[in-house]
Amino acid sequence: MSLYEASFRLKHECPYREISERYPDLTIREWYLSDCQVLEITSAEAPTDELLEEINGIGTVLHESIDDSGLHIVTQSCLCSLEGSILERFEEHDCLYQPPTIHRQGWEHYTVIAFDEADVRALLRDLERDRDIELLSKTAITEQQIPHSMLAPVDQLFEDLTDRQLAALQLALENGYYEQPRGTSLRELASQTSVARSTYEEHLRKAENKLMTNAGAYLRLVTSGSAGNPLQSGRSGTSEQRAD
Questions:
Q1: 3-state DSSP call for residue 224?
Q2: 142-181 CB burial, b ≥16 within 10 A, e <16
Q3: Of 50, 137, 41, which is closest to residue 98 (Cα–Cα)?
Q4: How many CB atoms lie within 10 A of CB 111?
């Protein structure tokens, strides 16, 4: 069965789109979670003080990097500025939204997946009633080509993780704990917190276990169509085992 992927851009009243219009070198990627929005703001140009002030007014800054490579900021904000009607219209026309929404040069860019080409046409006609809209591409895809991102919403991957577990995971990631070779140790990570090493390690291990459990269902979906057994898992009597 063929599905259809459609990408289009549109204009309507939105603070993020308007910022991208005022600052053409800026790109804003927007993800919707259950109770907030996460925005990744990037630019190859050095930001002005006015731009930084606008960004700080959007929400809570989670990460900020300004260097020779440009600007990279991640913020979290409430859903009050979200134009909920457009996501509802996607659902009304049986179109599956593919995050993130991208704001660039005064346009909002969206991608959707539909099971029928007629649903895409109906959605575009609906949106044209009250927006400037341009269809960028419409492509037939097979089920095997469905992007993995549609299988794993971000909020579901981090479901059931506590604030302390998320903080422990973020600290480990930012300090190179998962790099090869490791950039830090559990002792060094715990020393940056107010808890004992054993407590920090417990938070980190629980976060890892929950994350992998949540990702497991999506991992099985992603690999279900893979051919072969590249690691030859489940086989006994390999040369390495015989050597042991």
A1: coil
A2: eeeebeeeeebbeeeebeebeebbebbbebbeebebeeee
A3: 137
A4: 21
95 and 113 Cβ atoms separated by less than 8 Å: yes
211: nearest Cα among 243, 172, 237: 172
**DSSP conformation class of 1:** -
Give Cα 169 distance to the centre of its chain: 17
Q: How many CB atoms lie within 10 A of CB 221?
A: 13
* 139: nearest Cα among 156, 154, 117, 164: 117
pLDDT tier, 244 (very low <50, low <70, confident <90, very high otherwise): very low
Task: Give pLDDT tens digits for 148-206.
Answer: 554 455 556 677 889 899 999 999 999 999 988 999 999 999 999 999 999 999 999 99
Distance in angstroms (rounded) separating the CA atoms of residues 24 and 15 = 14
Q: Is 141 helix (H, G, I), strand (E, B) or coil?
A: strand
Q: Is 183 in contact with 177 (CB distance < 8 Å)? A: yes
H-run or E-run covering 4: strand 2-11
